[in-house]
Design goal:
About 50% of the residues lie in helices and about 10% in strands. The protein is mainly α. It folds into three domains: about 55 residues, no CATH class; about 80 residues; about 160 residues, Orthogonal Bundle (hpI Integrase, Chain A). The strands form two sheets. A three-stranded antiparallel sheet has the order 1-2-3, covered by helices on one side. A hairpin with a 2-residue loop joins strand 4 and strand 5. It is elongated and about 105 Å long. The termini are far apart.
Length: about 350
């Protein structure tokens, strides 16, 4: 670069890429403007030289089903529910017309979702559909298997009403336990007691092995959140589990028993909201826990929730919450007026 003072100001002369490249020659009032012009011009040249349109990737025309198979090969088969999720993704791909993933639009997806809603699909099912497909795109992008943005990134979930968290009364617990003793399946009664005592999901309690029942604790592994946890139990329940395990004479304390439980529940007078059966045992542990002053963070660890938002569904049952509702409402603070 050469900058020299001339009668009318300063002259700058330079080539953007050495000998043989274009030479720029400009005159400015000050030396600083010459330097800024040169830096700007060289930067523009370097930016343009980085762009190599002949190296851009061709349009990706792989169809949704091909992307599902690719997702399964790179990620899905590692998931505990990988087979079920793959089947769900293939169903979604088929119903969307199995277009190229790069051509899928938000409008196309939301219209399909609206149609699914009109067919009676629940908001939870619709949100699961969106989560599975969007997650597939994100996984493939992260793995650099696709090079276009997630077409579903800006689509919001369908708003879901809060589900009623039903829990059993003492009388209902006694009725249910008594009914489970009449089952042909000898495991139902004890699995029910463990779920009520620990807040465990039915599958977690049902999957206990002898090694996971130690020192008055039960340990749950391979859980929904992917994290192991241990919950203390009473010595009486501990002994009852070990006595039962000795009868079965195997490493597994129980055998699959959910169908027998559902039949026993149906024989009782207990009526539950739709979709709740064995899960009511979990709610029956959590609700009194909070109502009796239990700590919400402790409950999160006991239940194994990965997100505190799930546990916060029980927060409204806390005694201080209920006490404040009666003490701080506007009616309790106004002057009492005698009625004539």
């Amino acid at each position: 670069m050469a900058i020299k003072k001339i009668a009318s100001g300063y002259e700058v002369r330079f080539r953007v890429n050495g000998r043989g490249s274009w030479e720029y020659k400009k005159i400015f009032p000050t030396k600083g403007e010459c330097e800024r012009f040169q830096r700007y011009t060289i930067a523009q040249y370097e930016t343009q030289s980085d762009a190599k349109p002949w190296l851009d990737k061709p349009k990706d025309n792989r169809r949704l089903t091909e992307l599902v198979e690719l997702w399964d090969d790179t990620h899905g088969h590692f998931l505990r529910d990988g087979k079920r999720r793959k089947s769900k993704l293939l169903m979604i791909a088929s119903e969307l017309g199995n277009h190229a993933g790069s051509s899928l639009t938000r409008l196309e997806y939301t219209r399909w979702r609206t149609q699914r809603s009109k067919e009676g699909k629940s908001p939870k099912t619709l949100n699961n559909d969106l989560s599975y497909l969007s997650s597939m795109f994100n996984t493939l992008i992260k793995a650099e298997e696709i090079h276009y943005p997630n077409p579903l990134a800006d689509i919001d979930n369908v708003r879901m009403p809060d589900n009623e968290l039903a829990f059993l009364t003492h009388d209902q617990i006694n009725e249910l336990l008594e009914e489970t003793t009449r089952c042909d399946n000898q495991h139902v009664y004890l699995i029910t007691k463990i779920s009520l005592a620990t807040g465990a999901r039915w599958g977690e309690a049902e999957g206990l092995t002898v090694q996971r029942v130690r020192n008055n604790k039960v340990s749950f592994t391979d859980t929904k959140s992917g994290k192991n946890r241990s919950v203390p139990i009473t010595p009486d329940l501990y002994e009852e589990i070990h006595e039962h395990a000795q009868k079965t004479r195997g490493n597994n304390v129980f055998i699959p028993s959910i169908s027998s439980f559902r039949r026993a529940l149906k024989r009782t007078s207990i009526e539950l909201p739709r979709g709740q059966a064995a899960h009511v045992l979990r709610h029956t542990f959590a609700s009194p826990f909070i109502m009796n002053g239990g700590n919400i963070l402790t409950l999160q660890r006991v239940l194994g929730h990965s997100d505190i938002k799930m546990t916060m569904r029980y927060a409204h049952l806390a005694p201080d919450f209920l006490e404040e509702a009666t003490r701080l409402n506007p009616i309790s603070s106004i002057i009492k007026i005698e009625k004539y």
